Amino acid sequence: xxxxxxxxxxxxxxxxxxxxxxxxxxxxxxxxxxxxxxxxxxxxxxxxxxxxxxxxxxxxxxxxxxxxxxxxxxxxxxxxxxxxxxxxxxxxxxxxxxxxxxxxxxxxxxxxxxxxxxxxxxxxxxxxxxxxxxxxxxxxxxxxxxxxxxxxxxxxxxxxxxxxxxxxxxxxxxxxxxxxxxxxxxxxxxxxxxxxxxxxxxxxxxxxxxxxxxxxxxxxxxxxxxxxxxxxxxxxxxxxxxxxxxxxxxxxxxxxxxxxxxxxxxxxxxxxxxxxxxxxxxxxxxxxxxxxxxxxxxxxxxxxxxxxxxxxxxxxxxxxxxxxxxxxxxxxxxxxxxxxxxxxxxxxxxxxxxxxxxxxxxxxxxxxxxxxxxxxxxxxxxxxxxxxxxxxxxxxxxxxxxxxxxxxxxxxxxxxxxxxxxx
Length: 423
Known about the structure:
Layout: H1 8-23, H2 29-32, H3 47-54, H4 59-65, E1 75-80, H5 93-101, E2 104-107, E3 110-113, E4 119-121, H6 128-131, H7 138-141, E5 146-149, E6 160-162, H8 170-173, E7 177-178, H9 190-193, E8 209-210, H10 214-224, E9 227-228, E10 231-232, H11 246-259, E11 270-271, H12 274-283, E12 292-294, H13 315-320, E13 325-327, H14 330-333, E14 334-336, E15 342-344, H15 346-353, E16 357-363, H16 389-401, E17 405-408, H17 411-420
Parallel strand pairs: 1-2, 1-17, 2-9, 3-10, 11-12, 12-13, 13-16, 16-17
Antiparallel strand pairs: 3-4, 5-6, 7-8, 14-15
């Protein structure tokens, strides 16, 4: 066969094309394919090792150091809270893929609805101004419940906007791009306003987030072979919404799993609304053992995780109502003893005694650990002085409290820990 001399330019073009598509696989290939393959090569990056290195010397540090070269596996202990929003725009395909890559065995779609009553993944019905580019699209921005208004420092007025999924149709929702959650309330322009990513996060992956419907998330999660924990978000519009009742809404969410033929044991429906929980248990008994009551009983003001008389309803009443899984914030489950060591709270002890399974939220969502770690660690702030101390809290949650799983904004941390201690 006669050899043909190929110009160097052609080689350059071929290699450039190869690296473009390789580097853009999440953006190009996944957009063209109806599904993706399960991730077998779990990778947690450098953060877990960084945290372990900063731990105080002791048994926990030695245990976590011993598995630094261990091949890691997917684990149901690790729940991808909104995907991986520490670095990726929440509730986007890219965020979910990142969480799965880091070993999350369960992924969360927070569920709300559009103007035409389609279910979509958003943490709040009215957060589009903070989590998408909607304000940058004039034709959609004018449909927002509260259009953008600039700050006026002289008058003490902050910038403001509120854009809801119920302001737009599904077709319009699908034209949006996800961005990192946050706004700049001192902004005098839309461009400044949407550039409000908190300093402890990053915009490195924030330029092209792919928004998802609830049904699309189900198909993605099925392809990844992970379990699913959808949260029915509280509507921020008056219900019924053009005939769409709260029970219609709750039913539609679970029916989309039934229609997609997802095994019931792979679905963990969540809600802060106890009425939703009771409705599901009664109307969809096949999901009954999986329903998760998100505990926000502290909203009344007198709640104390160390005083059972302040919990309304009681743990026993929740069990009588059919609740089997309770999911409180981390701070409700832990306290400190006389030696300033992190230990289970009275709340945790009573919940376990009542027979409730526990799931904690949310790891890797705080900002400054130097001063106690913020809201999620308020009950143990005296024991938190650096970011590595979250591993101490995580260890107590797993070994002493006995939680079944932990939501995390960066699944690498929970996945690494679970693999190390063989959960």
